[in-house]
Structures are given as structure tokens and as C-alpha cells.
Specification:
Elements: E1 7-8, E2 11-12, H1 13-40, H2 48-71, H3 83-94, H4 98-127, H5 132-152, H6 154-157, E3 163-164, H7 170-175, H8 179-203, H9 206-216, H10 218-223, H11 228-254, E4 256-257, H12 264-278, H13 283-303, H14 318-333, H15 349-362, H16 375-396
Antiparallel strand pairs: 1-2, 3-4
């Protein structure tokens, strides 16, 4: 028993749609966090994979150990060596403990956010004052170093052995095929919506305008009293926390923590491709770019097995070649992306007039209807009041 199937041309569109939604929401959240760094603040974070993998690794490692301790499973066994048996017993307990399952997931996501923020803070210390090219190279090297750390430090996620993590969707898996993917899609979509709303709020705030000023001209922003190093550091910390949470959510979805799944190509190049194609500095453009990217990727996965007779190279390289071609075409034909960066909304003239009138009325000035006043009228009224004061002072004469 499971979700109904809707099969056309050998493709189950229900399963395809759930997989599409899970992938789209996950990469939307990651790409939005990268857009805050690269699109708004001008930080070329070529080590994005480090923050995603860091949150995923620590969330997966801690959640399994905490659940095993609470349920009293594998008390005298090594968690890494007997990982499969311990996690199997934990999953059986989670099916009958939905409240603890939710608490465990929330705790793990908070830990992932903290680890991502910590890695962002540590990486910002030596790098944030460097120029963009050196900053990108240092972050790229940091990401590569962290991948080596995950592969060689076995107490965390087993190193090359990898480990399983508690499956928070175990109950829904027991109900039938497809329910697990459906609930996971709802969870990831809710997370992506929250990230989008937060990114839009930041973009429309004074902080968003300050980030653009720092990105466009550091010297001018410093002359206006803005500390560009602090702004970039804070943005890197916040974006890294979001990336860490996304990594934890993905780890719970695949129910395993594997060092070799966190590649620079999938978790750094793809988000950069999405931001550039959609439009850097435009959150709506990033959402649109993520949609087209996911559509192309999932479509290729469906047709790739049948494409070998029609290409002269190994079909496994088809995906990489098409995405590289897409990136070059966008940079040549539309370097601003599908949707260009939008100017930050400011207060309208009517709102400015209303605010000025309110101040004038509180200060004893003559109140004017907001809808009947214009900026030129405000200047004219100010000049008239200054003229009246001068006439009064001349008429009164010296004291």
C-alpha cells in the first residue's frame, strides 16, 4: 500500500514530482544562502561544501549517539563499528516515539546551524580582509581540507566507512511507498520557504542596501562609516548556519552520513550555477534559476540511459557538458541572469510627505494634508517660513 501511481511513458510522475520537489527545495535554500554571500555581499564562497557537509556530519553523528543513549541501545558497543545494528534498533524505537523524533531532529538542526556558524566565523577570521580572488581561493582550500578531514577522521562519521543515521521518517515509511518522500518534501519545502522569506527581508532592509554598497565599492562604504569586514563576517556566519541546517535536513532524508557525497561539484559549483543563471542579487531570480536547473537535471536523469547511441562520448559526461555549456551561454548572452538585480524598494513620496507633516505638526508647524504636498512644496513652505521670520526680526529692530 502506498501513494497512487501516475505512469506516462514509463515514468511515475508522482514519484518524479516528489523527488523534484525535495531536490528543488533543498537547493533553493542552499542557493539563497549563497546569494546572500555572493550576490549581495560579494563574497566568492568557493568552499560552500564545507559548511553544508559540516552541518550534515555533526548532525548525523550527534543524533545517532543521543538516540542510542536515550533508548539504551548499544551501551557497551562502539558506535562506529556496530553502527548498523545500533541505528536499526533506534529506528524501531522512533516509530513509536514521534515526539522524541521531532525533538531529536530539531536538536540536530540546531547543532548543525551552530557548527555551520562556527565554521563561517573561523573561516572569516583569516579570509574576510582579503581581496575577492584570494578570499575565494582560501575558502576553496578550506572546503578541500574539510573533505579530507571527514574522510580520515573516523570517530565522527566513520571516515571512509560511513555511518547510518536515525531515520525520522521511519513511521511514514511503515505506512507504505511514497509517504516518506511526501513528508520529507513538506519538511524541506517549509524550510526553503522560511529561508526565502528571511533572504527577502534582509534584501529589503537597510542591511541589504549596505551589503550592496560594500560589494560595489568598499572604499566608498568605509568613507561612510561602514565596517565592511564586520558586515561580510556576519553574512558569512548567517549563510553558513543556513547551509549547515540544509545539510542536516538532507542527511536525515538519505538516512546516512557519507564523506564522498559532499563533492565540490554538486555542493559548490551547482549552487553557483543556479545563482548566476537565475540572477545574482535577486532572490526571485535564484528561485527561478533553481527551478530550471532542477528541471534540466531531473529530465536528464530520465533520458540519460537512452542517450548513449546518439552521442559520441560517455553518456555519464552529458550532464556536466550541458551545465558547463549553459553557464558559458548565460555569461556571454545574459550575464545578469534570467532576472536582473532589482533596486531595493524605498519609501514613496507620499510616505515621505506624511512623515514630514507628522514631524511638523508635533513641532508646532502648520499641518498639510499628505496627499496634497510634494517635495517641492515642502521646500517652498520652508522658504516662506524663513522669510516671515526675517521680516519679523527686521520689523522688531534691535533689542
Amino acid at each position: 500500500m502506498g501513494l497512487p501511481q501516475l505512469v506516462f511513458f514509463g515514468v511515475d510522475f508522482v514519484s518524479f514530482g516528489l523527488g523534484f520537489l525535495n531536490f528543488y527545495a533543498l537547493y533553493l535554500a542552499i542557493s539563497l544562502s549563497l546569494n546572500l554571500e555572493f550576490g549581495f555581499a560579494g563574497i566568492p564562497n568557493f568552499g560552500k561544501v564545507m559548511f553544508i557537509a559540516g552541518g550534515a556530519a555533526f548532525a548525523g553523528s550527534i543524533s545517532g549517539r543521543v538516540a542510542a543513549y536515550v533508548f539504551g541501545v548499544g551501551a557497551n558497543q562502539d558506535f562506529i563499528i556496530f553502527n548498523t545494528q545500533i541505528i536499526s534498533a533506534v529506528d524501531a524505537k522512533l516509530v513509536t516515539n514521534p515526539v522524541f523524533t521531532v525533538e531529536l531532529v530539531l536538536l540536530s538542526i540546531l547543532v548543525a546551524a551552530g557548527i555551520g556558524a562556527l565554521l563561517g566565523y573561523l573561516s572569516s577570521y583569516p579570509a574576510i580582509r582579503l581581496r575577492e580572488d584570494y578570499l575565494g581561493m582560501l575558502l576553496l582550500g578550506s572546503g578541500a581540507f574539510f573533505q579530507v578531514f571527514l574522510r580520515t577522521y573516523s570517530p565522527l562519521i566513520g571516515g571512509a566507512q560511513n555511518i547510518s543515521v536515525p531515520d525520522p521518517y521511519a513511521y511514514w515509511s511503515s505506512l507504505g511507498t511514497g509517504y516518506r518522500d511526501l513528508v520529507a518534501a513538506l519538511v524541506v519545502s517549509a524550510f526553503a520557504i522560511l529561508v526565502f522569506l528571511y533572504a527577502e527581508r534582509v534584501a529589503r532592509s537597510p542591511l541589504g542596501r549596505t551589503m550592496k554598497a560594500v560589494r560595489d565599492n568598499e572604499d566608498a562604504s568605509r568613507a561612510l562609516g561602514k565596517d565592511d569586514a564586520v558586515i561580510r563576517r556576519n553574512i558569512l556566519i548567517i549563510s553558513s548556519a543556513i547551509a549547515g541546517m540544509a545539510g542536516a535536513i538532507f542527511t536525515f532524508y538519505i538516512a546516512s552520513a557519507e564523506y564522498d557525497i559532499w563533492t565540490r561539484f554538486a555542493w559548490t559549483f551547482w549552487p553557483f550555477l543556479i545563482v548566476i543563471v537565475g540572477g545574482a542579487g535577486n532572490n526571485v531570480g535564484v528561485a527561478l534559476g533553481t527551478f530550471f536547473f532542477t528541471l534540466i537535471l531531473k529530465g536528464l536523469q530520465q533520458i540519460q540511459p537512452y542517450a548513449q547511441p546518439y552521442v559520441f562520448f560517455d553518456v555519464n559526461w552529458l550532464q556536466d557538458i550541458l551545465f558547463a555549456t549553459l553557464l558559458i551561454a548565460i555569461l556571454l548572452l545574459r550575464p545578469d541572469g534570467i532576472l536582473k538585480e532589482r533596486p531595493t524598494p524605498t519609501l514613496s513620496k507620499s510616505k515621505v510627505s506624511a512623515m514630514v507633516n507628522a514631524v511638523m505638526s508635533r513641532g508646532g508647524g502648520r499641518q498639510t494634508e499628505p496627499e496634497k504636498i510634494s517635495p517641492l512644496g515642502l521646500v517652498r513652505n520652508k522658504l516662506k517660513r524663513l522669510g516671515r521670520r526675517r521680516e519679523k526680526s527686521e520689523t522688531a529692530g534691535p533689542p
